[in-house]
Amino acid sequence: SVLCRWGRDVRASEAMIDELGIKSHVVWKAPMHKIRLRDHYQACDVVLDQFHEAVGTFGTVTAEGLSCALPVIMYFNPAVHEWCLPEMPPIQSALTEEEIASRLSELAMDAPRRHAIGRASREWIIRWHGWERCARDHQRLHRDVLSRSEEHTSELQSRQYLVCRLLLEKK
Q1: 130-158 burial, b for 16+ CB within 10 Å, e for fewer?
Q2: Beta-ladder partners of 74
Q3: Deepest in the core among 34, 95, 118, 144, taking most CB within 10 A?
Q4: Are 95 and 54 spatial neighbours (Cβ–Cβ below 8 Å)?
Q5: What is the dihedral angle through the alpha carbons of 69, 70, 76, 79, rounded to the nearest 10 degrees?
Q6: What pLDDT was estimated at residue 152?
Q7: Over 90: is that where the pLDDT of 145 sits?
Q8: pTM
Q9: What distance separates the 2 farthest-apart alpha carbons in the chain?
């Protein structure tokens, strides 16, 4: 296993690895530049991310893993995302140690399934987080803001016109 020395659980993870006697099977890496990190992702079969019940959503590590066409195991709560994601990502959700071990075993024992989930992961991230989608969403947002600004400006100009007329009529 390759683990990154990042996050609040590093010390607890090190202690658990020592306690389990598997230190010789774990390689710790310092946080690294994205290009180098991508090379590490591409050498992996599976990415594991956060397993906190209070979170249930993903961050950069999961998005990067999905983008590299890798299955991602993490705790994912679909209820948190229903308002913003019409299609849930193909994340292999797990919360308990048993669930994590089960997902790892399933993916290790079934390479065709692992590769299919990886392809689906890449397709999903491109569809919902790719640059075309982001650019389209930003263009739509800018159009909405500009149209509201133009409406507001027009409304202000109309009010100013009325005020000026009223003032002129009083003279």
Answers
A1: eeeeeeeeeeeeeeeeeeeeeeeeeeeee
A2: 93
A3: 118
A4: no
A5: 20
A6: 66
A7: no
A8: 0.78
A9: 93
Residue carrying the six token digits 């991508």: 38
| Distance, CA of 151 to CA of 159 (rounded, Å) | 12
Segment (H or E) for 115: helix 111-129
Within 8 A by CB and 6+ apart from 68, the residues are: 38, 41, 42, 44, 47, 122
DSSP track, 137-167 = HHHHHHHHHHHHHHHHHHHHHHHHHHHHHHH
Nearest to 57 by CA among 65, 45, 49: 49
Which are the contacts of 32, defined by CB distance < 8 A and separation ≥ 6?
4, 40
Find the angle CA(9)-CA(18)-CA(55) to the nearest 5 degrees: 20
69: which 2 tokens? 């066409």
